[in-house]
TrEMBL record:
It comes from Sphingosinicella rhizophila. InterPro entries: RNA_pol_sigma-70-like (IPR039425), RNA_pol_sigma-70_dom (IPR014284), RNA_pol_sigma70_r2 (IPR007627), RNA_pol_sigma70_r4_t2 (IPR013249), RNA_pol_sigma_r2 (IPR013325), RNA_pol_sigma_r3/r4-like (IPR013324), WH-like_DNA-bd_sf (IPR036388). Belongs to the sigma-70 factor family. ECF subfamily. This is Sigma-70 family RNA polymerase sigma factor. Transmembrane segments: none annotated. Residues 16-79 form the RNA polymerase sigma-70 region domain. Keywords: Sigma factor, Transcription, Transcription regulation. The lineage of its organism: Bacteria, Pseudomonadati, Pseudomonadota, Alphaproteobacteria, Sphingomonadales. Residues 106-157 form the RNA polymerase sigma factor 70 region 4 type domain. It comes from the Bacteria. Gene3D superfamilies: 1.10.1740.10, Winged helix-like DNA-binding domain superfamily/Winged helix DNA-binding domain (1.10.10.10).
């Protein structure tokens, strides 16, 4: 534990802590499990900053750590309840969560939660403002393929938002 590590953590959470909160919201619908996931992300971030060497932007580092913790959480949840999709084994959002965010934002998170991990990562990075080139480097695809996936998702998203919320669910 170093002062530099603590300083990096404070800077990272001040400037980029919202990334972790959004990742937790996308990966976990249950508010109690979401809080646990967010706490795990913060612990992992603090620990990882001892190895942070500035070869990438701090925001990229925060995103990668958060995404890896969230992906591990999702995989662990699937192993606990095999054969059940992640979003199907979770209770509906509580009244408090519904008050916390607008219906549109909650629907967006719900839709992104249903994506397969590679597409979920692409969309999360896109929603965080990353361009196709940066996303392509992160997910090891060509930027044209990333742009195509984003375009397709946006078209599907537009269609889903035009449908009533209760019709979207299979």
């Amino acid at each position: 534990m170093t002062v530099e590590q603590d300083d990096h953590y404070l800077e990272a959470t001040k400037d980029h802590g919202a990334i972790l909160a959004r990742l937790a919201r996308v990966f976990e619908a249950n508010p109690d499990l979401r809080r646990d996931l967010l706490q795990d992300m913060h612990v992992a971030l603090w620990r990882s900053l001892a190895r942070f060497d500035h070869r990438c932007a701090l925001s990229t580092w925060v995103y990668r750590v958060g995404y890896n913790v969230a992906a591990s959480h999702a995989a662990r949840e699937r192993r606990i309840q095999p054969g059940i999709a992640l979003d199907e084994n979770l209770p509906a959002a509580s009244v408090a969560a519904a008050i916390e965010v607008s219906d549109g934002l909650e629907r967006l998170y719900e839709i992104v939660r249903q994506l397969e991990p590679p597409d979920r990562q692409i969309m999360l990075m896109y929603l965080e403002g990353a361009d196709a080139r940066l996303i392509a480097e992160e997910v090891n695809l060509q930027s044209g393929a990333v742009a195509t996936r984003i375009h397709r998702f946006k078209a599907a998203l537009t269609q889903k938002f035009q449908e009533p919320a209760d019709v979207q669910r299979p």
